[in-house]
Amino acid sequence: xxxxxxxxxxxxxxxxxxxxxxxxxxxxxxxxxxxxxxxxxxxxxxxxxxxxxxxxxxxxxxxxxxxxxxxxxxxxxxxxxxxxxxxxxxxxxxxxxxxxxxxxxxxxxxxxxxxxxxxxxxx
Length: 123
Description:
Elements: H1 2-20, E1 23-26, E2 29-32, E3 37-40, E4 43-45, H2 49-60, E5 65-66, H3 68-76, H4 86-97, E6 108-111, E7 115-118
Antiparallel strand pairs: 1-2, 2-3, 3-4, 5-7, 6-7
Helix pairs in contact: 2-4
């Protein structure tokens, strides 16, 4: 248990350092924060501004469940009212563009009752 926690902390610190260095790399997924570009399997993926910001935020917090409340506060600068589905729509579009099946999502998982999880080892 302790070893798992240490590994998670090290992985998160590496991810946050990568955000500061402007490049995130997860297996076959490469996110360049400066040029706002995403490549998966050597193919460029076209994302909207909001989809890109969401992906970078989730990737910067890889391995950590991000609640809807936290995502709304950090990305949209407002509180989540419990009814707004814009985040769910953006997640579904992001999954589709990144080849992650919504029914059996393995890369960006929905953790029911808690939020979303970017799985760093699934790429």
